[in-house]
């Protein structure tokens, strides 16, 4: 694999073809904040300290035009100002307070219990098989069901929602796929609008009823806002959790001594979860738009410029992590930025962590050795980091 000094960060294949970690090391050392040419170009922020302060500076760096580079380059996010992740203060705070009520300890406790049940059942089943695809047989079934549990989606609708979501996220290039994907996204929003309308009329003790009936900023959400914010939980929680689970299994298979340490209790499950999150860094970057002229790492950024924050680089910054390319499940402290930082810090972090905790605990109980027995298929994306398939055998 080559180590380029230039990498086209808009190219979905760049990260698979090149040694991106060596690239980022070079960037952190020689030009930690740089202008990436393009139409339009954008700023690239690579050091942990700069990424952290950009996440915190919500007054100068807006999320409302979109938070993913591709979306910003293609004109911005149509959910801006309506969906939590792509909304700025003061509306962001109102929406976030509302959404946080959905994540009460009582709701989360019940959801977490079901995550543990589902995960240990899946692991017990696959542990008896020979070779299998961990992505298809296990990882795919955990996050969507967790979100569906959170939202009390009827069992009968889940398969349909999973199918739409796969289509909506399809990263194929062909025009027909793009149309299918747009259609699937509309189906999901339409589905949540129907559900929100129904539960607004006949509210139950569930999160959609809460979102559909609660007020934010002195008025109830519109049905579209309610639907978009239900959908944002699917968008935020499905793929990122899936690739982290796949990364956990792949990484422990490649590090048998660390796997033994976890099984024998020399490394704790909680610190291992954090190290898996750092190692996986499911979202390579998040992005913002500058609302005023400002300095980032000594570089002059102008109002209107796109600023990209590279978690994948920050999570491997030697200034913060000793020997960052060493996978150390006992690493502590572990100030990774996989869940972001500041006012937009991931609202699903508790669930993301709970899913990994349940997975590692179930695996340590029934799997002595993990072997990767085929070539895993990478995800081609400059945003999502990870694998779409992982052929393995558990012993
Ligand atoms: C926000 C990562 C799981 C829902 C974020 C952000 C990151 C992130 C980096 C900050 C984005 C920004 O600053 O622009 C992850 C990772 C996960 C995960 C790595 C799993 C390992 C989840 C889950 C849910 C969720 C399970 C839902 C149940 C959200 C939402 C936001 C968010 C709604 C927007 C919060 C806001 O803007 O205030 N996530 N996430 N995420 N995440 Fe997660």
From TrEMBL:
InterPro entries the record matches: Cyt_P450, Cyt_P450_B, Cyt_P450_CS, Cyt_P450_sf
PROSITE patterns: CYTOCHROME_P450
Keyword field: Heme, Iron, Metal-binding, Monooxygenase, Oxidoreductase
PANTHER family in UniProt: BIOTIN BIOSYNTHESIS CYTOCHROME P450 (PTHR46696:SF4), P450, PUTATIVE (EUROFUNG)-RELATED (PTHR46696)
Family that this chain belongs to: Belongs to the cytochrome P450 family.
Protein name per UniProt: Cytochrome P450
Organism: Streptomyces lancefieldiae
């Amino acid at each position: 694999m080559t180590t380029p000094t230039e990498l086209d960060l808009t190219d979905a294949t760049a990260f698979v073809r090149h040694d991106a970690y060596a690239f980022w090391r070079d960037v952190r050392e020689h030009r930690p904040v740089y202008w990436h040419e393009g139409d339009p170009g954008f700023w690239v922020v690579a050091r942990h300290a700069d990424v952290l302060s950009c996440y915190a500076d919500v007054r100068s760096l807006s999320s409302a035009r979109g938070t993913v580079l591709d979306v910003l380059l293609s004109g911005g996010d149509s959910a801006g100002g309506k969906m939590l992740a792509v909304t700025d203060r003061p509306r962001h705070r109102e929406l976030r307070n509302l959404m946080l009520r959905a994540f009460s300890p009582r709701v989360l406790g019940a959801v977490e219990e079901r995550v543990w049940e589902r995960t240990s059942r899946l692991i017990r089943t696959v542990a008896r098989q020979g070779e299998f695809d961990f992505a298809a047989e296990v990882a795919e079934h955990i996050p969507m069901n967790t979100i569906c549990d959170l939202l009390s989606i009827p069992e009968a609708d889940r398969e349909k929602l999973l199918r739409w979501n796969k289509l909506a996220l399809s990263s194929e290039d062909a025009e027909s796929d793009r149309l299918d994907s747009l259609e699937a996204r509309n189906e999901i929003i339409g589905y949540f609008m129907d559900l929100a309308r129904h539960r607004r009329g006949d509210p139950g003790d569930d999160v959609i009823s809460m979102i559909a009936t609660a007020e934010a900023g002195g008025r109830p959400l519109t049905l579209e806002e309610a639907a978009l914010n239900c959908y944002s939980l699917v968008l935020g929680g499905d793929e990122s959790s899936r690739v982290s689970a796949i990364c956990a299994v792949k990484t422990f298979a490649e590090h048998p001594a660390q796997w033994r340490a976890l099984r024998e209790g020399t490394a704790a499950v909680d610190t291992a979860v954090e190290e898996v999150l750092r190692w996986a860094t499911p979202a390579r970057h998040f992005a913002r738009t500058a609302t005023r002229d400002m300095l980032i790492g000594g570089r002059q950024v102008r109002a209107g410029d796109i600023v990209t924050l590279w978690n994948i680089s920050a999570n491997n910054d030697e200034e913060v992590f000793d020997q960052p390319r060493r996978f150390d499940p006992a690493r502590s402290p572990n100030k990774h930025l996989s869940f972001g930082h500041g006012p937009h810090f991931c609202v699903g972090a508790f669930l993301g962590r709970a899913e990994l905790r349940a997975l590692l605990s179930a695996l340590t109980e029934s799997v002595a050795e993990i072997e990767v027995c085929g070539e895993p298929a990478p995800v081609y994306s400059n945003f999502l980091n990870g694998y779409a398939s992982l052929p393995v055998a558990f012993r």
